[in-house]
């Protein structure tokens, strides 16, 4: 089987992709700084602790492992933090990726799957959002992802690499076997925050903005189960290994839920009527983001298995209930 280098493979999404690759027999090597990742989350292959900004170490790892492809997840992802600390995001997300591409070139690796984001669309005019929609980010996180996509397009145009850029919408849930899930204590995702509030680990759940142009005034997002997203990565890898040309795909279900709908579902799943606090809007939040994902279904044959909001929340809730025991045992 092919060899795959996974940057950021000890993080939330990366670790689920490493699991999916390992289960399918791929040889996997994770390269992660462990700033937000966890060694216990890497279920298959070896882990090398290193930073994307350490080009010498990254080049050495690529030359020694000789991967057939790279999956790149190592990015900062918190939108409000990107607004407050833009330089942090441009250095890691853009410069780090440039280092990776340079090291791939030196190591004769020409296939990359890039972890992008719906944040590249900004406030889209068309909902659901197709891949052809203009890229108009409204925060530094989104700009950092759009910048990398521009670099990939230019490098691919001259034959430097073949790539697949997967634009995620809102990723949630956890490994249904209960082995891995969101490990960060300060995870920013709504569903994670909701279930941790239900578990009594937070005093309340904040709702940022109730005056958006949506049915109940709160933001609408398209939530995708992390295992369906991992499956999309495996399909993208197979596509490139079979000689596929560079492509961009949205990863979402094509339906959206308001923040209040997610909260209601979380209360139903957990059985806890946890407290909610209403606050002002956060900078950098678009009102609605819902994916047009017909392209990935048609081109890669992606068939989501877990398109159910309560099911997504249930998997996250089951993980949260055992998370501390899992962490303590590892």
Quick synopsis:
By secondary structure, this protein is of the alpha/beta class.
Detailed description of the structure:
The structure is a single chain. With 330 residues, the chain is of the alpha/beta class. It folds into 2 domains: 3-171 and 223-251, NAD(P)-binding Rossmann-like Domain (Rossmann fold, 3-Layer(aba) Sandwich); 190-221 and 254-292 and 305-329, UDP-galactose 4-epimerase, domain 1 (Alpha-Beta Complex). The chain has 10 helices and 14 strands. It has helices at 12-23, 55-65, 79-84, 86-106, 140-157, 190-198, 226-241, 259-270, 294-300, 309-329, and strands spanning 3-7, 27-32, 46-49, 69-72, 111-117, 162-168, 170-172, 205-208, 220-221, 223-225, 247-251, 257-258, 276-279, 288-289. A 7-stranded parallel sheet has the order 3-2-1-4-5-6-11, sandwiched between helices. Strands 12-9-14 form a 3-stranded mixed sheet. The protein has a two-stranded parallel sheet with strand order 7-10. Helix 6 crosses helix 10. The protein is globular, with a radius of gyration of 19 Å. The two termini are 29 Å apart.
């Amino acid at each position: 089987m092919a060899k795959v280098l996974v940057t950021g493979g000890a993080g939330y999404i990366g670790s689920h992709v490493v699991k999916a690759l390992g289960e399918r027999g791929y040889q996997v090597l994770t390269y992660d700084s462990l700033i937000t990742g966890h060694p216990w989350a890497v279920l298959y292959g070896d882990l090398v602790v290193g930073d994307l900004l350490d080009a010498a170490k990254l080049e050495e790892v690529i030359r020694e492992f000789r991967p057939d492809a790279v999956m790149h997840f190592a990015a900062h992802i918190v939108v409000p933090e990107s607004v407050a600390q833009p330089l942090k995001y441009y250095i890691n997300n853009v410069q780090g990726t440039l280092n990776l591409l340079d090291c791939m070139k030196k190591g004769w690796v020409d296939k990359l799957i890039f972890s992008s984001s719906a944040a590249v669309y900004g406030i889209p005019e068309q909902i659901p959002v197709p891949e052809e929609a203009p890229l108009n980010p409204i925060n530094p996180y989104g700009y950092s992802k759009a910048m990398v996509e521009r670099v990939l397009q230019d490098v691919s145009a001259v034959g430097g690499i073949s790539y697949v850029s997967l634009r995620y919408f809102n990723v949630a849930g956890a490994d249904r076997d209960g082995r891995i899930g969101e490990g960060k204590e300060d995870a920013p995702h709504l569903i994670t925050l909701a279930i941790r509030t239900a578990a009594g680990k937070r005093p309340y759940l904040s709702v940022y903005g109730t005056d958006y142009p949506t049915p109940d005034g709160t933001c609408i997002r398209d939530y995708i189960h992390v295992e369906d997203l991992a499956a999309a990565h495996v399909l993208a890898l197979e596509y490139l290994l079979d000689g596929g040309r560079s492509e961009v795909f949205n990863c979402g279900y094509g339906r959206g839920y308001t923040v209040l709908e997610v909260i209601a579902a979380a209360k139903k799943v957990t059985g806890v009527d946890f407290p909610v606090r209403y606050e002002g809007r956060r900078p950098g939040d678009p009102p609605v983001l819902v994916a047009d994902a017909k392209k990935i279904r048609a081109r890669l044959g992606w068939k989501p298995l877990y398109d159910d909001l309560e099911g997504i929340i249930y998997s996250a809730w089951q993980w949260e209930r055992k998370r501390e025991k899992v962490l303590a045992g590892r």
